[in-house]
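User: For a teaching handout, I'd like to show students what a predicted protein-ligand complex looks like in C-alpha cell form. I'll give you the sequence and the SMILES for flavin mononucleotide. Please answer with just the structure.
Assistant: Understood, here is the input followed by the structure.
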Amino acid sequence: VLRTPFTELLGIDHPVVSAGMAGGHTSVELVARVSEAGGLGVVGASFMQPQDLAAHVGHVRETTDKPIGINLLLHAAAGLLDDTLSLEPAVLSTAWPRDDQDLAEIFRKAHDRGVRVMHMVPRVEDAVQAAEAGADVIVAQGFEGGGHIGEIASIVIVRQVAKAVAPLPVLAAGGFVDGAGLAAALALGADGVLLGTRFLATDEAPCEDVYKQAIVASNGDDTIVTTVADTFTGRDWPRSLGTRQAHALHRAVARSRTGAPPTPRRRLRPARSRRSVGGGRRADVHRPVGRCDRLGPAGR
Ligand SMILES: Cc1cc2nc3c(=O)[nH]c(=O)nc-3n(C[C@H](O)[C@H](O)[C@H](O)COP(=O)(O)O)c2cc1C
C-alpha cells in the first residue's frame, strides 16, 4: 500500500491507473483486475454504444466492487456523457476536448452525480484550465506515451503540471511502465501513474499475443509518431492541443504502406470471459476479438 493524495481521494490502495483506452483495448478482465488489485481500472468508452457500455460496466461490477473509471475522449464522445454518468463510476476520466466544449459544465454534471473527474492534458495551460473548471485529478501526459500524445516530454510536463496545479493530485502518463517509473513520477511531484501500453501487454488485455510480444520486445527505437491511424479512421482530433499524432510501432505503419491492408475497425462479438476475477462468476462479455493495434500487429 502506497498512500498519496490520489489514493486518499478515491480510497484505493495503489496509485496506479490503467488508461481508458478506446477502441476495445480495455476488456472487462483488464479493468476488473486492476481495480480488484487495488489500482483504478478505467473503461475506454469512447466508441461504444450506450447499451454496450452499460453491459460492459455491469460485467466489470460482477467481478469487482472496487472503484472504477470510465474514459471519454471529449471531442468524439461527449454524447455519451449522460449515459456514462448514469452508471455512476467512481471517476469520469476525460481527455482531448474541443475548444468549444465547456469543461466546467461537463465536470459539474459529474460532480452532481457524485463522480470525481480526472482530466488528461498535454500542456500546462490545459492543466490550469481544467483545474479552474473543477477537475479533481489532472493527468499530465507526455510525448513518450502510446496513443495520441502532446509534444512535451513526460519528465518536463509532469513537473510543470505538478507545480502549476498543486495541491490538486496529479498523475504522470507517458512511458512510466513499472515501479521504477512510479518512483520517478513521485519524485517529479506526481501522486501516481496512469499506464496504457504496459497494460496492453498483460494476460488480461484483449490483444493478440503477437502484439503483446511486440510491446515487450520493443527497444523504443521501433516506434513512430504519425497521423496514419487517423487518416484511416477519418477521425479529426482537436488541433488546439498541439500535435494530433499518435505513437505506434513503426513496423505496423510500414506494413500499412506496403500493401497489407490495415484494419482500423475491429469486429465485436460476444465472448466468454476466460477467467473470473476475485472469485466472481464467469460472465459473457462483449470484447474485441483479434488485434490490439489500429494498424495491424507488428512483427507479422
Ligand atoms: C492503444 C491506446 C489507446 C488509447 N486510447 C485513449 C483513449 O481513448 N482516451 C484517453 O484518454 N487516452 C487514451 N490513450 C492514452 C492513455 O490514456 C495514456 O495517456 C498513455 O497510454 C500513457 O502512456 P503509456 O502508453 O506509455 O503508458 C490511449 C493509449 C493507447 C496506447
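For the handout, you might add this sentence: Residues 28 and 57 are 8 Å apart (CA to CA).
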